[in-house]
């Protein structure tokens, strides 16, 4: 069953490390195999990493999108995770869950959990707040592919 993403005009997407952009019209993409992807609103730029929670998110993002550098980034992840645990000992359950997800290779889910740790004013995403108010959310659905009965010959 493929994964369907509907992207807005002008939206960007990272797929297996490649940055894709959408033109002037909405686009539907279907992924029929496993891919690592992040939508533009989920991408955190390094210059926006002003808290330990965002640094943790960013390093997981790097591990997810660039698996060829995962070995080095996993070491950095361990260091940042310990700093985050020291800074926010009350959130140890979430940090444990993030660590378990990263160790099992479920990076996308770890990113979602990590976003819960962001301060309230940035909890809605990693991008610009003004953009979020004017754009509608991206639709992500799984679609079953059905063979057409009346195919033209």
From TrEMBL:
Record Pfam families: FlbT
Q: Do the record's keywords include Nuclease?
A: no
- Indicate yes or no for the key word RNA-binding: yes
What are the record keywords, sorted?
Answer: Bacterial flagellum biogenesis, Cell projection, Cilium, Flagellum, Repressor, RNA-binding
Give the matching InterPro entries.
Answer: Flagellum_FlbT
GO annotation terms (biological process): bacterial-type flagellum organization; mRNA catabolic process; negative regulation of bacterial-type flagellum assembly
Single GO MF annotation: mRNA 5'-UTR binding
Instruction: Tell me the superkingdom of the source.
Output: Bacteria
Which named protein is this? Answer: Flagellar protein
Q: Upper lineage ranks?
A: Bacteria, Pseudomonadati, Pseudomonadota, Alphaproteobacteria, Rhodospirillales
């Amino acid at each position: 069953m493929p994964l369907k993403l509907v992207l807005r005009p002008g939206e960007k997407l990272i797929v297996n490390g490649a940055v894709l952009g959408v033109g002037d019209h909405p686009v539907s993409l279907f992924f029929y195999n496993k891919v690592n992807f992040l939508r533009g609103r989920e991408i955190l730029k390094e210059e926006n990493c002003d808290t330990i929670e965002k640094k943790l998110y960013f390093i997981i993002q790097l591990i997810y999108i660039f698996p060829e550098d995962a070995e080095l980034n996993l070491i950095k992840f361990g260091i940042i995770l310990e700093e985050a645990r020291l800074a926010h000992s009350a959130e140890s359950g979430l940090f444990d869950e993030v660590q378990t997800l990263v160790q099992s290779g479920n990076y996308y889910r770890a990113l979602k959990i990590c976003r819960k740790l962001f301060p309230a004013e940035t909890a809605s995403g990693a991008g610009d707040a003004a953009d979020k108010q004017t754009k509608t959310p991206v639709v992500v659905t799984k679609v079953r592919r059905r063979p057409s009965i009346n195919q033209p010959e």
